[in-house]
Specification:
Elements: E1 4-13, E2 17-20, H1 21-25, H2 32-39, E3 43-46, H3 53-68, E4 77-81, H4 92-100, E5 106-110, H5 116-130, E6 135-143, E7 161-171, E8 176-183, E9 191-192, H6 196-202, E10 211-212, H7 214-235, E11 245-248, H8 253-262, H9 274-277, H10 284-294, E12 303-310, E13 314-321
Parallel strand pairs: 4-5, 4-6, 11-12
Antiparallel strand pairs: 1-7, 2-3, 6-7, 8-13, 9-10, 12-13
Helix pairs in contact: 3-4, 7-8
The protein binds oxa(dethia)-CoA (UT7).
Oxa(dethia)-CoA binds at residues 30, 34-35, 38-39, 114, 153-154, 157, 214-215, 217-218, 221, 251-252, 255, 279, 309-310.
């Protein structure tokens, strides 16, 4: 009998503080119209000093658990994707486990930058299919605002904070149909964030902030996401018209529109959160999925294609029946 990983709950958390393009135009040489036209972003949320990847993840996780109507003790695996963990260790997943008061499960973090939640879904799917785990919590949680150089107008306009969660459970009914994940370490120079300890040891003047050659990343992202969409449909014997919803990583509306066009999908079939959330890195796909589920657009039985691209480069897709 085939075992599937079924979505039984979703959740999301966004910090209360809103930073608008207007606010940014008072900090760096930019304008609301430049940011909106080039990226599709109008505002983003910024964590307050007490909020962390684990505190935001906890709220998103509790929502997913409540939607699923399960006891948190039933969770046997917690995977947290984050590039902005509370600590080097313990893992954010262990901190979330403690916050949720779960004693009998295992948790670990993964680092795949903006592709983190899709990588997390892929890992969860493998563990459920092999029978190692029955109920898996996948979270993407990011405090990007702490690794943004707020004096760099080419990057500070893009990123925001937040957490998205999905709860998966073993089932005999179709859930995650397939995942495809990739990486290519040859692009470190185009998008990276130094580790503070290593930077201090090797290059004293290198701050631990996001460095990105945006225009070059943009071009690779558009081509790569086009390829991953083709790969996913072909490998699973699907046509463009079989996909009900595209839930993309929210980096830039122009990148998302190019992928939707490739799929022959209208923007009405795309869940977009970019305008009010910016790029929340590993949280963005799960935040968008949660939004689409909770506002009733994504319905049970529909087919959803998630895709993401990030530093590494890393990229991937998750195809699922909701
Ligand atoms: O999530 C992980 C993956 N990340 C991405 O996928 C991000 C991909 N990249 C992008 O989204 C876009 O490349 C950006 C939004 C970052 C930049 O847009 P662009 O259309 O690629 O602009 P550009 O970097 O080619 O810069 C065009 C001009 C430059 O001026 P000159 O050289 O033409 O005079 C920049 O200095 O725009 C200037 N510029 C700005 N102007 C006003 C750059 N940032 C700003 C700004 N406000 N914030």
């Amino acid at each position: 009998m085939t075992i599937w990983a079924n979505v039984i709950g979703t959740g999301g958390y966004l910090p209360a503080t809103i930073r608008t393009n207007q606010d940014l135009s008072e900090m760096v040489d930019t304008t609301d119209s430049w940011i909106y036209e080039r990226t599709g972003i109008k505002s983003r949320r910024i964590a307050d000093e007490h909020e962390t990847a684990s505190s935001m993840a906890e709220v998103a996780a509790r929502q997913a658990i409540e939607m699923a109507g399960i006891d948190a003790e039933q969770i046997d695996l917690i995977i947290v994707a984050t590039g902005t963990p509370d600590r080097v260790y313990p893992s954010t997943a262990c901190l979330v486990q403690e916050r949720l008061g779960i004693k009998h499960c295992v948790g670990f973090d993964i680092q795949a930058a903006c592709s983190g939640s899709v990588f997390g879904l892929s890992i969860a799917d493998q563990y459920i299919k092999t029978g190692f785990a029955k109920t898996v919590l996948v979270i993407g949680s990011e405090v990007c605002s702490r690794i943004v150089d707020w004096s760099d107008r080419s990057t500070c306009i893009l990123f925001g904070d937040g957490a998205g969660a999905v709860l998966l459970s073993a089932s005999d009914q179709p859930g995650i149909l397939a995942t495809h994940i990739h990486s290519d370490g040859g692009y470190e120079d185009l998008l990276y964030c130094p580790n503070p300890q290593a930077a201090a040891a090797h290059k004293q003047d290198e701050a631990s902030v996001i460095n990105m050659r945006g225009n070059e990343v943009f071009k690779v992202a558009v081509n790569t996401l086009g390829r991953i969409v083709d790969e996913t449909l072909e490998a699973n014997g699907l046509q463009h018209s079989d996909i009900d919803w595209l839930v993309p990583h929210q980096a830039n509306t122009r990148i998302i529109a190019a992928t939707a066009k490739k799929l022959g999908m209208s923007m009405e079939q795309v869940i977009l959160t970019l305008e009010t959330q910016g790029n929340t890195s590993s949280a963005s796909v799960l935040l968008a999925f949660n939004q689409g589920v909770r506002d009733g657009r994504i319905k049970r039985g529909q087919t959803v294609l998630m895709e993401a691209f990030g530093a590494g480069f890393t990229w991937g897709s998750a195809l699922l029946k909701f």
